[in-house]
Amino acid sequence: DNGRFFFTMAKSYEFINLGIWLNKEKILILSDFHLGYEEYLHQKGVLLPRFQLEEIIQRLNLIFEKVKPKIIVINGDLKHDFSKNLNQEWKDVLKVLRFIQNHCQKIILVKGNHDNYLQTIAAKIKIKVVEELIIGNILILHGDKIKPIPKSIKTIIIGHEHPAISFREKSKVEKFKSFLRGKWKNKELIVMPSFNPLLEGTDVLKEKLLSPFLTNILNFEVLAVGEKRIYNFGKVKKLITK
């Protein structure tokens, strides 16, 4: 597959790595970076090497090799600590935003439930944080709470949940970040995986889901992100019965 890292889902959008690409508008949507998560864990007494920023930049570079966006949207939870701005968050958020600025004309930050103090950091480089974003008939919002949805909207894109799927081979269990795609009140709903390498995500076949949009996902498709492509494993209800 020549290292291609995307899977075409429809004429209007593609899944590329952990992002969604709107080809007509040249817009790239990413979600749930949770920058500062390592420092947050350190304060809780969990010590681990700080590698997430490097891996995030590497993954972004893979995407930028394939697409050249005009606008990049980060769909909530760019930072992790929702009670304050940690030192690592200040440094890492500015580094990531400045890096992204070199690859697009504009950045739009959609507010997530962890982004209470994000505007203070983003204002340093004159980026605003918005509650939601509408692009044509697509609504982008974080997904931690349900808001009124305009009738004109056909597709809703959320983050927040960090969906994943686990596979067991003998004693080894491997978890893959995944997209979910299904219906919510007759509208297409897409749930994005986390961009943070430390947050593998919620196993949608076994664990309780948090988003109020996801009260019943049995008819949702699971699309797992592999090393070089995305694998459609079909509907949740079929995977649960296997």
> Total number of β-strand segments?
16
Task: Return the average pLDDT rounded to an integer.
Answer: 86
Whole-Å distance between the termini? 29 Å
Radius of gyration: 17 Å
Helix content bin = 10-25%
Report strand %.
25-35%
Major beta-sheet overview: 9 strands, mixed
Provide a concise account of the structure shown.
This protein has 242 residues and is of the alpha/beta class. The chain is 20% helix and 31% strand.
Characterise the protein shown here:
With 242 residues, this protein is an alpha/beta fold. The chain contains five helices and 16 strands. It has helices at residues 37-43, 52-66, 87-101, 118-122, 236-241; strands at residues 6-8, 14-16, 19-22, 27-30, 71-75, 106-110, 129-130, 133-135, 138-140, 155-158, 163-169, 172-184, 187-191, 202-203, 221-225, 230-235. Strands 8, 9, 10, 11, 12, 13, 14, 15 and 16 form a nine-stranded mixed β-sheet that branches. Strands 1-2-3-4-5-6-7 form a seven-stranded mixed β-sheet. Strand 6 (106-110), helix 4 (118-122) and strand 7 form a beta-alpha-beta unit. The longest helix is centred in the N-terminal third of the chain and has 15 residues, at 52-66. The protein starts with 5 loop residues before the first strand and ends with a helix. The relative contact order is 0.16. The model is unreliable at 1-10 (pLDDT under 50).
